[in-house]
Amino acid sequence: LQKALHAGQINVSVAEELWGISEEGDMEYYLDHAIESGCTKDTAQRWKMDWQAAQRRKRHGAEGETQLRSPYEPKPYYIACDICNKPALIEDAASVMICPVCRKVIRERQGE
C-alpha cells in the first residue's frame, strides 16, 4: 500500500480507505484493482465497507458456518407442519383447505 502511494499509483484518500481492510491478501486484491483500473475515494470506501460486511457475516454465520453467503442469496423459510409440527421448507409445503370439524378429526387421530 505504501509503495503504491509513494509511486503515485493511488492517492492518499484511497490508501486511507484501503488501510481499513486488515487482511493483507484481501487488501492487495483491492489495491491491484485500484492500480489497474483507477479508483476514487468513494469506490475504495465502498470496497472497504463491503469487505467489513463480509467479515461480519463470516463471524456471525449459523452454527459454525464459515462459508460466506451473499446478502442477495435467498434465505430458507420454514413453517411448522400442521400434522407433526416439524419444520418444513415453505416451498415444499402444501396447503389444505379443510373445515374446523375435519381438522379436529385429523388432530384427534394424530394423538392416537
Task: Describe this protein's structure.
- The longest helix has 19 residues.
- Helix 2 packs parallel to helix 4.
- 51% of the residues lie in helices and 5% in strands.
- The relative contact order is 0.08.
- The chain is mostly helical and 112 residues long.
- It folds into two domains: 58 residues, no CATH class; 33 residues, no CATH class.
Terminal CA distance: 71 Å
Chain-averaged pLDDT: 85
Going by helix content, strand content and strand pairing, the class is mainly alpha
| Number of continuous helical runs | 5
Question: N-to-C SSE series?
Answer: HHHHEEH
How many structural domains?
A: 2
Helix content: 40-55%
Q: How large a portion of the residues is in β-strands, by DSSP E?
A: 5-15%
Q: Which regions have little confidence, pLDDT < 50, spanning 5+ residues?
A: none
Largest sheet: 2 strands, antiparallel
Can you tell me the overall shape? rod-shaped
Protein traits:
51% helix; 112 residues; 2 strands; 2 domains; mainly alpha; two-stranded antiparallel sheet; rod-shaped; single chain
Question: What is the fold's blueprint, element by element?
Answer:
Elements: H1 2-6, H2 12-19, H3 24-37, H4 41-59, E1 78-80, E2 87-89, H5 100-110
Antiparallel strand pairs: 1-2
Helix pairs in contact: 2-4
Quick overview:
The chain is mainly α and about 110 residues long.
